[in-house]
Structures are given as C-alpha cells and as structure tokens.
C-alpha cells in the first residue's frame, strides 16, 4: 500500500481556553492537490503551521512522508516548501537576490543555486523583472515569487496557505496553471483557501473544517452529488416574502431538503430542477407570490459549505488568536 504523503490523526490545538483544532483527521495521497477549506478562524492556518513544524499540537499526531512533525521536525523541513498567506520575500532585494538567498538558507549546493533561481524566474514569468526590487512588483508578481521561493529546494510537498488571496482573476488563473503543472511533475500540494471555486478547480479531494472540526471529507464531485446536481434560486424581493415562500414550499411539496433562506433569496438543492421548478412556481402563484428572478444552475462547493455550516465561507466569524500567527 502506498504511503500517505501527509497523515493527520486526531490533531488538536488549544490556545488557553480556545480550541483552535478539535481531533482533526485526514490523509493526503502522493501527487495530488488536497484542499483544506473553511472560513476565517476555522483552523486552516493552524493545521498548516503544525504540519510545517512552526507550532506543536496539543494532542494527536501528524506525519509528512512518514516523519513525525514534532519528533523529526528537521527531517520534515527538508521535505516541504511553504508559501504562507503573506509574501515572505524581502521587498528591498531583487527577485533574483531573493531566490538566491532562499537557496543559501535552505543549504542547497552552491553550484545549483544560481541556475535554479534563473529557472524558477523563467518558469514563473518573472525573468524580465528579475533584477528589479520586489517592492516594484505587482501583487500577482509577488505572489508568484513567493511560490517560487518555496520551490527553490525542490521539495516533494508544497503547502500553499490561501495563495491567491487579493489577486485579480488573471493572476489567480495564472497561479492555478502553475499549481497544475507542479502536480503533473509529481509535487504533492496541500492548499488552504476560502475560495471554493479554487478548490473545485484544483483539488482532487477536500476536507471542510469549521470551528476546528472536520465536517466533510470527500472529492468535490461527491460532495456536490450528495447535495444534489442542481440548485434552484429564487429572488423574492424581500426577506419576509422569502420566508413565506420557503414555508409554502416546505409545507406542501414534502421535499427531503428544506428550502434555504438567505435574505431575500431562497435556494433549493435538487435533482430534477425543471420539473420541481414548475411545481414551485405554481404553488407560489397560488399564494400570491411572484419571484423577481429565477435561476437554475449546477451546484457548487459553496452550496455544499452552506448546507453543512449554515453560512458561506466568507461570512465566517472571528479569527484565530494572535499566538497562532493572525487570521486565516
């Protein structure tokens, strides 16, 4: 049986009375993109910091390529690259100088550092700006340089903690393409993100965490299939009409899934959207309710998260404590 690239069993972390992680368990297979999803404060960054040996767990254990992250921290550090939430490069050095410095700090062979830095600058489309101070780079360029820095030592496992936060769509798509390329070459990637579209695009499997606990663990396709293949969305104009419409639908159609109300919008995951929509519109019309807009679309991971937690990822409350290194 192939050894897991990352194995997490019963991982818990407390900061005083605050439980940041509560018995988190998951496994990452070699050569896959694994998505760790959740709102701010869910525990994503705490998991990353434990797996990269920055924090010690309060309970449980974790291994990276068979090495315990506490007992064999030095061995783990030699196997991983980390691009955190914020660019770790020096703004006063050039892109080339940053990568060469990282090479020296990672104790790479001196003869390899210069060609490796040049190769990464080419690969990440930074060669033209290689000798400019990083403070002159755009946000997307800094993010690409940060990921390049995490790859200087050619680690088999790469941790990306919300790598595209704050990037424009073009920069985000460019970074997605680079991540796919790395995985095709054999790199294992653990990706944390609040952007569910990102996980849907990149991850082969996802774990959803909320308030420090794992609440789902499966492929994106399986999670969406469990919820329903399609989603009906109705804009009822105001919250009162939406609540009344939900009561009408739930009370008379006998559906397995209750209609979800969010402000003036009503959402219903289902499998036979068009047949159900006809019945819904007839019921609402009989009750004197007419939606402002009607939409039928494929279900998304955002719908899954909303069904599991009752809120969207970007409305999660709170952040992790300062001792954990700031918010997620």
Automatic annotation (TrEMBL):
Its EC number is 7.6.2.2. SUPFAM superfamilies: P-loop containing nucleoside triphosphate hydrolases (SSF52540). The keyword Ubl conjugation does not apply. Its main location: membrane. Residues 6-236 form the ABC transporter domain. SMART domains: AAA. InterPro entries: AAA+_ATPase, ABC_transporter-like_ATP-bd, ABC_transporter-like_CS, ABC_transporter_ATP-binding, DrrA, P-loop_NTPase. Keywords: Antibiotic resistance, ATP-binding, Cell membrane, Membrane, Nucleotide-binding, Translocase, Transport. It is a peripheral membrane protein. The keyword ATP-binding applies. Coiled coil: none annotated. It is found in: Cell membrane. One of its GO terms (biological process) is doxorubicin transport. One of its GO terms (cellular component) is plasma membrane. GO terms for molecular function: ABC-type xenobiotic transporter activity; ATP binding; ATP hydrolysis activity. PROSITE patterns: ABC_TRANSPORTER_1, ABC_TRANSPORTER_2. Gene3D superfamilies: P-loop containing nucleotide triphosphate hydrolases. It holds the Pfam family ABC_tran. Belongs to the ABC transporter superfamily. Drug exporter-1 (DrugE1) (TC 3.A.1.105) family. This is ABC-type xenobiotic transporter. It comes from Streptomyces griseoflavus Tu4000.
């Amino acid at each position: 049986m192939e050894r897991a690239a990352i194995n997490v069993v019963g991982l818990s972390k407390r900061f005083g009375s605050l439980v940041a992680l509560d018995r988190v368990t998951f496994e990452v297979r070699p050569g896959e993109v694994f998505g760790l999803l959740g709102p701010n404060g869910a525990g994503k960054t705490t998991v990353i910091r434990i797996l990269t040996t920055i924090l010690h767990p309060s309970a449980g254990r974790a291994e990276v390529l068979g090495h315990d992250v506490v007992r064999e921290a030095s061995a783990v550090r030699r196997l991983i690259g980390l691009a955190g939430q914020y660019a770790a490069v020096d703004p006063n050095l050039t892109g080339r100088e940053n990568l060469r410095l990282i090479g020296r700090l990672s104790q790479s062979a001196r003869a390899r550092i210069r060609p490796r830095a040049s190769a990464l600058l080419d690969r990440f489309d930074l060669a033209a700006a290689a000798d400019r101070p990083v403070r002159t780079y755009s946000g997307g360029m800094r993010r690409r340089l940060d990921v390049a820095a995490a790859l200087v030592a050619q680690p088999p496992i790469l941790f990306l903690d919300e790598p595209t936060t704050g990037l424009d769509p073009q920069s985000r798509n460019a970074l997605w393409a680079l991540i796919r390329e790395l995985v095709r070459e054999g790199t294992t990637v653990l990706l944390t993100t609040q952007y569910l579209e990102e996980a849907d695009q990149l991850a082969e499997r996802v774990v959803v965490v909320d308030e420090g606990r794992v609440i789902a663990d499966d492929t994106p396709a399986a999670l969406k299939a469990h919820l329903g293949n399609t989603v009906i969305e109705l804009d009822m104009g105001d919250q009162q009409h939406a609540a009344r419409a939900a009561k009408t639908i739930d009370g008379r159609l006998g559906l397995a899934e209750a209609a979800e109300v969010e402000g003036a919008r009503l959402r219903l995951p289902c499998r036979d959207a068009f047949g159900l929509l006809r019945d819904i519109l007839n019921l609402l019309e009989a009750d004197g309710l007419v939606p402002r807009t009607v939409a039928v679309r494929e279900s998304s991971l955002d719908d899954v998260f909303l069904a599991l937690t009752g809120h969207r990822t970007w409305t999660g409350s709170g952040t992790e404590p300062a001792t954990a290194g700031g918010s997620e």
